[in-house]
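not sure who needs this but someone in the group chat was asking about Transposase IS200-like domain-containing protein from Flavobacterium bomense so here u go. i didnt clean anything up, its just raw.
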Amino acid sequence: MKNRKRNRMLGYDYSQNNLYFVTICVQDRKCCFGNVNTAGTGRDLSVHEPMNPYMEWNEYGSIAQKQWNWLDNQYAYVILHSFIVMPNHVHAILEIDSNLISDCEIKIKSVSELIGAYKTTSSKQIHLAGLSDFAWQRSFHDHIIRNDGSYERIYNYIETNPERWNTDALFEK
């Protein structure tokens, strides 16, 4: 069997309180969540505002967004900081904070378990909406956010992702 690269930091407890940056890709980078609109914001053009590209979700992109918010409602110890659905991937900062729950009996899920719940529920909803061949890529990328500077850089990266879509490593025509 081929040796696979380890995706997570060896010995680190991914259910502990921390901030995590995650990227989850659609299988084969298939663009199925909508398009980046580069024509502008749709605002009144007589107002001199910069015309920033933005993501226009289709039905499947809306499901991906809705199911991310579901995590926040489902798990009281999860805080969602930033999230964007792009045409073929999602980026997010999520926080695990066990101090938000008082019930010691509740098992805190790891980042992998949370992403697994997201992938499972979003896939099911997308299949039910008619995209029967939809699949997420195996695993996901994660980064443990260790300081305020890193948080700011990642937060800005997520929020401005549509502006860089044509140069993004995940860009597929």
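also Confidence is low (pLDDT under 50) at residues 43-48. if thats useful
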